[in-house]
Design goal:
541 residues; mainly alpha; 4-stranded mixed beta sheet; two-stranded parallel ribbon; 6 strands; elongated
C-alpha cells in the first residue's frame, strides 16, 4: 500500500491521467513483492521448457540436419576417449560437446541425447540465473531467468523464425545463455555473497573459453567494460580468479594442458572463417541494436532528470558495451538476425532506473514504463518463441515425422529431418548401405563431407584424426587448413560424396585433399551418391 501511494504521488503525471495510471501500474507490477505465485510460475514454465525439449529430441528437423552430426560425432568421439583439438580438429571446445555426452549417457547413446543435453543446459543456466538474481525485483528476476533458459533450450535456429527447427548452432545458444548469466552478475549492484558472485563469473568465463572462443572474448570484454556498473570488492575478484582457475584447470587437465593444439585449431578456424557482411543481415542487426540503444538513451535521460547523472552515464556506457559485443558476436555465428543479450540487458536497465531514481524525482515515469516495457517485450519474445518452437516440434513429431523417411541406424531413430531435407536421410542411408557392404570388422571410417554421420550412426569406434566438420570459408580454406596427414588420421575407410552437403566443398576437397586421398587410398566401392576408399596396405603400389 505504501509503495502504491509513493508511486502515485511522485510519479503520476497529472497532465495525462491515463498515462500516469499505466505508468504507476507498470512500476507497481515491476516491484511486486515476492511470493509463492512467482516461484510456482518460474518453476512451471522452466520445467515445461526443459521437459518439452527433452521429449522432442531431434524429430522434425526442418533446417540444416547435417549440422546435427557435428555435435553427435564430437560427443561420440569424446565418449570413445578422444579429445577435441588433440585427437580431432574442432572449431568448438569440449564444453560445447559435453551436454550431448551427458545426454548420451541418459539416452543409451541414441540421438535423443542431443535433446536431453540441450534441456539440461537450459535447466542449469535458468536456475543459475534465478539464484544469482536474488537481489532483483521478483518480476524481472523471473523473466530474466526464464529468458536465459529459453535462449539455451530453443530447438529453433538463431536469427530465423521459431518454426525453423534445427540442431545447428546449439553451441551459439549456449554461448549467449552463458553470457546472459555473466551479464546479470556484472550489472547487479547487489548479488548477496561477493565471493560466490565472483566465482560464478569466473566459472562462466572459463566455460565460455572451452565452448566457443569468440564467446570467451566477448565475456572478457563485457567483464572489463562493466566494471563501473557495480561496486568492486576484493572478495569478488578473488572469487572470480578462483572460479576461472578451478574450472579452467579442469578443462585444461582434460586436454592434457596441450594449449598449442587448442591454439592451432582455433587459428585455422579464425583464418578461414568468412565474416558475414550481407546487407540484409546488417539491416536486421541495426534494427535490434538501434532499439536497444534508443531505450538505453531514454533510461539515461530519465536518470539525469531524476538527479542521478552518474547512474545515467553508467547505463549508457553499459548499453553501448553490450550492443557492441552482441554485434561482434553475430558476425562469426552465421546468424541472420537477433541479438539475444539485448532483452536481458534491457531487463537490467529497467531494474536500474527504478532502483536508482532520485528520491525527490518528479520526472514523468512514463519513460520508466517504456524502458521496462521494452525489456519485457524483448525478453518476452524470446520466451514466447521457445514455446512456439517446442509446440511446433511436438506437432511435427506427431504428424509430419510419421511419413518422413527414417535413418537406417538404431541410434538415429529420434533424428528425423522433414520437408526439404528428407533427401538428406536418403543420402546418409545410401552411405550406410555402402559401408555395410564393404566394411570389414574393426575398420574405422571418416567422411570428406561437411560432417561425418557414419561412426556414430553405426556405433563403431571413431578413427583418431579427422574433423568434426568441414566447411570451406568456415573451418578451413586453401591457406588455413588441417594437414592431410592429420585429417585422414588413422581412418581405414574414407567416404567421399558425389554431391557435397556444403557447396564450397565441391571444388575445395578435390583440390586440397584429393592428391593425398588418391596416393594413400584406393577406390573399393560406389553407390548412387558415395564413393568408398580403403587405405592402401604398406608396400602396396
Amino acid at each position: 500500500m505504501a509503495l502504491e501511494l509513493r508511486l502515485s504521488t511522485s510519479s503520476h503525471d497529472p497532465s495525462s491521467p491515463a498515462a500516469g495510471r499505466i505508468a504507476t501500474y507498470v512500476e507497481c507490477f515491476w516491484q511486486r513483492p515476492r511470493g509463492l505465485t512467482s516461484v510456482v510460475v518460474f518453476w512451471f514454465l522452466l520445467l515445461a521448457m526443459v521437459v518439452s525439449r527433452a521429449c522432442v529430441a531431434m524429430y522434425g528437423i526442418r533446417e540444416y540436419p547435417f549440422d546435427g552430426f557435428i555435435v553427435l560425432d564430437g560427443a561420440w568421439r569424446m565418449l570413445n576417449g578422444q579429445r577435441p583439438h588433440l585427437d580431432f580438429n574442432s572449431m568448438i571446445g569440449p564444453a560445447a560437446y559435453l551436454p550431448t555426452v551427458v545426454g548420451f549417457r541418459l539416452a543409451s547413446n541414441t540421438a535423443a541425447g542431443f535433446g536431453y543435453g540441450q534441456a539440461l543446459v537450459g535447466l542449469v543456466l535458468g536456475v543459475w540465473a534465478y539464484l544469482l538474481g536474488t537481489k532483483l525485483f521478483e518480476v524481472p528476476r523471473v523473466i530474466y531467468a526464464l529468458c536465459v533458459a529459453a535462449i539455451a533450450v530453443s530447438p529453433a535456429q538463431l536469427g530465423l523464425s521459431p518454426f525453423a527447427l534445427t540442431p545447428a548452432g546449439t553451441y551459439n545458444r549456449y554461448t549467449y545463455a552463458l553470457l546472459g548469466v555473466l551479464l546479470l552478475e556484472c550489472m547487479s549492484a547487489e548479488v548477496g555473497s561477493e565471493l560466490v558472485a565472483g566465482f560464478s563469473s569466473g566459472a562462466l568465463i572459463a566455460i565460455l573459453a572451452f565452448t566457443k572462443v569468440t564467446g570467451f572474448f566477448a565475456g572478457v570484454a563485457l567483464l572489463v567494460a562493466l566494471i563501473p556498473q557495480r561496486t568492486q570488492t576484493l572478495r569478488r575478484w578473488f572469487g572470480l580468479a578462483a572460479g576461472a582457475v578451478s574450472v579452467g584447470l579442469c578443462f585444461l587437465g582434460y586436454l592434457r594442458f596441450d594449449l598449442l593444439a587448442v591454439i592451432r585449431d582455433l587459428a585455422i578456424t579464425a583464418g578461414a572463417k568468412r565474416v558475414i557482411t550481407d546487407i540484409y543481415v546488417l539491416n536486421s542487426i541495426a534494427l535490434d541494436a538501434g532499439i536497444a540503444l534508443l531505450l538505453t538513451f531514454c533510461a539515461s535521460l530519465f536518470l539525469i532528470d531524476s538527479g542521478n547523472p552518474r547512474a545515467a552515464r553508467r547505463v549508457l556506457a553499459a548499453g553501448i558495451s553490450v550492443v557492441a559485443a552482441s554485434v561482434l558476436l553475430i558476425f562469426g555465428n552465421y546468424q541472420q538476425a537477433e541479438l539475444p543479450l539485448v532483452g536481458l540487458f534491457l531487463l537490467m536497465v529497467g531494474q536500474r532506473v527504478v532502483a536508482e531514481r532520485g528520491s525527490t524525482s518528479t520526472a514523468g515515469s512514463g519513460m520508466v514504463s517504456v524502458v521496462i516495457g521494452g525489456g519485457a517485450i524483448f525478453a518476452g519474445i524470446s520466451i514466447l518463441s521457445v514455446f512456439v518452437s517446442l509446440g511446433t516440434a511436438q506437432w511435427v513429431k506427431m504428424h509430419s515425422v510419421r511419413a518422413a523417411p527414417k535413418f537406417e541406424a538404431p541410434a538415429l531413430r529420434q533424428f528425423v529431418p522433414v520437408k526439404d531435407y528428407t533427401a538428406y536421410t536418403g543420402f546418409v542411408n545410401d552411405g550406410f548401405r555402402l559401408l555395410q557392404q564393404y566394411r570389414k570388422p574393426g575398420e574405422r571410417v571418416m567422411a570428406l563431407d561437411f560432417s561425418n554421420p557414419f561412426s556414430y550412426g553405426l556405433g563403431i569406434p571413431p578413427a583418431p584424426g579427422g574433423s568434426a566438420n568441414l566447411a570451406y570459408d568456415g573451418s578451413f580454406n586453401a591457406a588455413h587448413k588441417v594437414s592431410p596427414e592429420r585429417l585422414f588420421g588413422a581412418a581405414d575407410l574414407v567416404m567421399v560424396p558425389k554431391f557435397f552437403t556444403e557447396p564450397g566443398l565441391k571444388a575445395a576437397v578435390p583440390a586440397i585433399y584429393g592428391p593425398y586421398l588418391e596416393s594413400h587410398f584406393r577406390l573399393v566401392g560406389t553407390s548412387s551418391v558415395w564413393k568408398l576408399y580403403r587405405r592402401l596396405s604398406v608396400g602396396t603400389g
